[in-house]
Design a protein that fits this description.
The complex is a heterodimer of chains A (264) and B (400). Chain A is an alpha/beta fold and 264 residues long. Chain A is 30% helix and 29% strand. Chain A is built from 6 helices and 15 strands. In chain A, strands 11-10-9-12-8-1-6-7-13 form a 9-stranded mixed beta sheet, sandwiched between helices. A two-stranded antiparallel sheet of chain A has the order 2-5. Chain A starts with a strand and ends with a helix. The chains are: A alpha/beta (264), B alpha/beta (400). At the A-B interface, strand 4, helix 3, helix 4, strand 9 and strand 10 of A face helix 5, helix 6, strand 11, strand 13 and strand 14 of B.
C-alpha cells in the first residue's frame, strides 16, 4: 500500500498575538508547526503501513522553510518527504493549491491512498482535500474518524457527520481527509529524529511537476483577497458579584428572556 | 523575476517602512533600506499597496477577463437528510434573497434527493423564485461523486452568477468537488456576504487564523462565484405559504450518477439529544468539571433550558465526553445565541470555536481566566457549585 500524506506548515496559533497598535497579526517569534490535523493523517498512514506494508510519502507545498515540516514527518516514521516549492506558486488559492498537489501526486505515481487533515488551522477551508480528489479524478471520503477495513482495492471508513457517522465503502485509490478522533499521533523517536536530520528532501518546482502555468499561483486562482482586517475584539462584559445565590439570580434574570426566546 | 505577482519598484521605494507596518502577515521586511516582500507569507491582500505613499509596490493583474454577462441568478444548494430540509438552507435563502435583489436577479434553489419533489414548495415559500429538482433513487442520501456531478451539470446548463451552500460537513465536501471542474472561485465558511455596488462582485467575508483576522475575498474574473456559509450566522427566511415559484425538473444521465463509493450504513449518535451545530443554547464544560461524572450536571442544566452540551479540548482529551461535542479549533465551530462555559479557561483555540455566540457566560474559579475577557456575563466561582444552582433557578423561572 503506497500512501501519500499531504501536509502544510502553519503558524502555531497558540502563539498568535495581535499587535494592539496596528491591529495586525504579530508573527514575530511565532513558531511554525505541522498543521495539527495533518498529524492525524501522518499517524494513520504509518499505522496502515505497519499493518499492510508499503510506503508513506509526505508532500508539502510551501516555501523552502516548509522542509522542516517534512523532516518532522520523517522523524515520526514517514519514509520520504517531497517539497513542492516555487515562486510561481505565490498567491495560490485552494483551486491552484489542490491542482499543484494533485500534479505532484500524479508525478509521484503508483499511489493507493492519499491522506490529508480535514483542514489547515490557518486557512480553515477544508477545500484542498476534495480539490485534490477531483483534480485526480478519485473518489473521496471526508471527515474520517475511523478506517474499519482496508485492502488492496477497497476501503471502508467512517465519516463524522453533525448528527452521527456514516460508514462508507470506496474503491481505492481514494483521497481521505481525517479528523482528530481517528488516532493519537505518536511522538518522534530518537532514531526517527536522527533519520530526519540526515534525510534528503527532494524539491520539485512547477516545471518538475509539469504544471500548466495558467493553473498555478495567481493566474490559477479564481479568488482574490481584497481586504484583511482584525475583528472588533469582543469586550469583556459584566461580572456578576456577590454570594453564589446572588450571582445565580442575577444571571437567570439576564438570560431568562433569551432562553425563552431560543426555546420558542 | 517579472513573473512575481507583487513586487517592489526599487527606484521608487524610499525605505520608509509604512508597508512593513501595514502588512497583516508580517511578510515585508527592510533590507538595505528597501522593502522586501516574502512571497511565502504574502497573501496578495494589497494592504501594502494602499499604504505606500510612493506607488512603489505593484501588484500584477491577471491577464484576460472572460465575458461574465451570461451568468445570472443566485443559487442556494438545499441540504436535506431523509427528506427533511435542514435549517441552514433557509438561512441561505434569507441571505440569497438580499443578494438576488441587489443584483436584480432571481433566487433559485437546487434540491437533490429521492422522492423529494414535493419539498420544492418549502423552498419557494421561503423565497426561491425557481427550484431545480433532481429526483433519483441514487440521490437518496448525500454521496460525493454523483451529487457533485449533478451540480456541475446543472451549473453548466443554467450558468448561475452565485452559488451558496452551507458550510456543513456535507456542504464543504460537496462544493469543493463542484468548483474545481467549473474553474470557479470558492470561498469557505463565510460569515458575511454583500454585493460590491460598483463591480457587482460578491464580497465574501470570512474568519481565518482561528478567527484572529477577517478576510474579504472576491472572485473577479470567473463565474459562478461560489461560497459556503457558516451555519447559524445568517437569519432564516420566514415561510410565506402563499408564495409560489417555478419548479424545473432536471433530467440526468446514468453516467452522471456513477459512484465509486457508497454508504453502507448510518449511525446516529446515541446520547446526542441536541446537535451543537444546530443548538441555540450550548452548555459547555472543561477541565474545571474535574471528572467525567460531573458532566451530568451540565446535562441536567441543558435539559432544563433546552441546550446542547459542548466541551473543551481538555475534557475531550481526558475522555470525559465524545469528540463530537468538542468546541474549538480542532472540534466544531458553533454560533449559538447563548454559550455557557463552565470551568473552561478559554484558550485561544477554544475561543476560535465559540466567540461569535451572541451571549457568552463564563463560570470559572480563576478570575484571571481568559474566558472572562470575552464573556458577556462572568461569574467567578466553582462551576460544580454554581451549575446545579443555576439548573434549579432556571427550573423555577421557566416554570418547569
Amino acid at each position: 500500500m503506497n500512501i501519500i500524506v499531504c501536509i502544510k506548515q502553519v503558524p502555531d496559533t497558540t502563539d498568535i498575538r495581535i499587535d494592539p497598535e496596528t491591529n495586525t497579526l504579530m508573527r514575530e517569534g511565532v513558531e511554525s508547526i505541522v498543521n495539527p490535523f495533518d498529524m492525524y493523517a501522518i499517524e494513520e498512514a504509518l499505522r496502515i503501513r505497519e499493518s499492510h506494508g508499503g510506503s508513506v510519502t509526505a508532500i508539502s507545498m510551501g516555501p523552502p522553510q516548509a522542509e522542516a515540516a517534512l523532516r518532522e514527518a520523517i522523524a515520526m516514521g514517514v519514509d520520504e518527504g517531497i517539497l513542492i516549492s516555487d515562486r510561481a506558486f505565490a498567491g495560490s488559492d485552494t483551486w491552484a493549491t489542490s491542482y499543484t498537489l494533485a500534479e505532484a501526486i500524479r508525478k509521484r505515481g503508483d499511489v493507493d491512498l492519499v491522506l490529508c487533515g480535514k483542514q489547515a488551522s490557518d486557512g480553515d477551508t477544508a477545500q484542498v482535500g476534495p480539490g485534490i480528489a477531483v483534480h485526480l479524478d478519485l473518489p473521496q471520503i471526508t471527515y474520517v474518524r475511523k478506517i474499519e477495513e482496508i485492502e488492496e482495492k477497497r476501503i471502508v471508513a467512517e465519516r463524522l457527520l453533525e448528527t452521527g457517522f456514516e460508514v462508507i465503502e470506496s474503491e481505492l485509490p481514494a483521497v481521505l481527509t481525517v479528523v482528530k478522533e481517528i488516532n493519537e499521533p505518536r511522538l518522534p523517536s530518537l532514531k526517527g529524529k536522527m533519520k530526519a536530520r540526515k534525510a534528503e528532501i527532494a524539491t520539485w518546482t512547477a516545471e518538475d511537476i509539469g504544471a500548466d502555468r495558467a493553473k498555478i499561483g495567481l493566474d490559477g486562482s479564481p479568488t482574490k483577497v481584497v481586504r484583511i482586517f482584525t475583528p472588533e475584539p469582543r469586550k469583556g462584559g459584566e461580572m456578576l458579584e456577590g454570594e453564589p445565590e446572588e450571582q445565580v439570580a442575577a444571571l437567570v434574570e439576564r438570560l431568562k428572556d433569551a432562553v425563552v426566546g431560543a426555546q420558542g | 523575476m517579472s513573473e512575481d505577482p507583487i513586487r517592489v519598484i526599487q527606484e521608487k521605494c524610499v525605505g520608509c517602512g509604512l508597508c512593513v507596518k501595514a502588512c497583516p502577515f508580517d511578510a515585508i521586511e527592510m533590507q538595505d533600506r528597501l522593502a522586501r516582500i516574502d512571497l511565502a507569507r504574502c497573501t496578495l491582500c494589497g494592504a501594502c499597496v494602499e499604504a505606500c505613499k510612493f506607488d512603489a509596490i505593484e501588484m500584477r493583474e491577471k491577464a484576460g477577463t472572460a465575458d461574465l454577462s451570461g451568468y445570472r441568478d443566485v443559487w442556494v444548494i438545499a441540504e436535506q437528510h431523509g427528506g427533511h430540509i435542514e435549517s441552514v438552507t433557509y438561512e441561505l435563502l434569507g441571505e440569497g434573497r438580499k443578494l438576488a435583489d441587489a443584483l436584480e436577479m432571481d433566487l433559485c434553489a437546487v434540491l437533490l434527493g429521492a422522492g423529494i419533489a414535493d419539498k420544492a414548495s418549502e423552498l419557494t415559500s421561503r423565497g426561491a423564485d425557481k427550484v431545480y429538482v433532481v429526483d433519483r433513487p441514487e440521490l437518496e442520501y448525500f454521496t460525493d461523486e454523483p451529487y457533485a456531478a449533478v451540480l456541475v451539470d446543472l451549473v453548466r446548463k443554467h450558468r448561475p452568477n452565485i452559488v451558496l451552500c452551507g458550510a456543513t460537513t456535507v456542504g464543504r465536501s460537496l462544493v469543493s468537488r463542484v468548483a474545481v471542474p467549473l474553474n470557479a472561485g470558492l470561498t469557505a465558511d463565510c460569515t458575511g456576504l454583500d454585493i460590491d455596488p460598483e463591480t457587482k462582485n460578491l464580497r465574501q467575508t470570512r474568519p481565518a487564523f482561528g478567527g484572529n483576522i477577517m478576510a474579504t475575498i472576491v472572485t473577479p474574473d470567473t463565474r459562478p462565484q461560489m461560497a459556503t456559509v457558516r451555519h447559524k450566522v445568517m437569519k432564516e427566511a420566514e415561510p410565506d405559504p402563499a408564495r409560489t415559484g417555478e419548479v424545473v425538473v432536471h433530467a440526468v444521465t446514468e453516467a452522471i450518477l456513477r459512484s465509486r463509493a457508497r454508504r453502507v450504513r448510518f449511525e446516529a449518535e446515541k446520547d446526542n439529544i441536541v446537535n451543537i451545530a444546530e443548538a441555540d443554547i450550548i452548555v459547555s464544560g472543561g477541565r474545571g468539571l474535574q471528572k467525567p461524572e460531573n458532566f451530568a450536571l451540565l446535562h441536567e442544566l441543558a435539559e432544563v433550558i433546552g441546550a446542547g452540551v459542548g466541551a473543551s479540548r481538555a475534557a475531550v482529551d481526558a475522555n470525559w465526553i465524545p469528540y463530537s461535542h468538542q468546541v474549538g479549533q480542532t472540534g466544531k465551530t458553533v454560533c449559538p445565541k447563548i454559550y455557557i462555559a463552565c470551568g473552561i479557561s478559554g484558550q485561544i483555540q477554544h475561543l476560535a470555536g465559540m466567540s461569535s455566540a451572541d451571549v457568552i457566560v463564563a463560570i470559572n474559579k480563576d478570575a484571571d481566566a481568559p474566558i472572562f475577557k470575552v464573556a458577556t456575563y462572568g461569574i467567578v466561582g466553582d462551576a460544580l457549585q454554581i451549575v446545579p444552582m443555576l439548573t434549579e433557578a432556571f427550573r423555577k423561572a421557566l416554570g418547569k
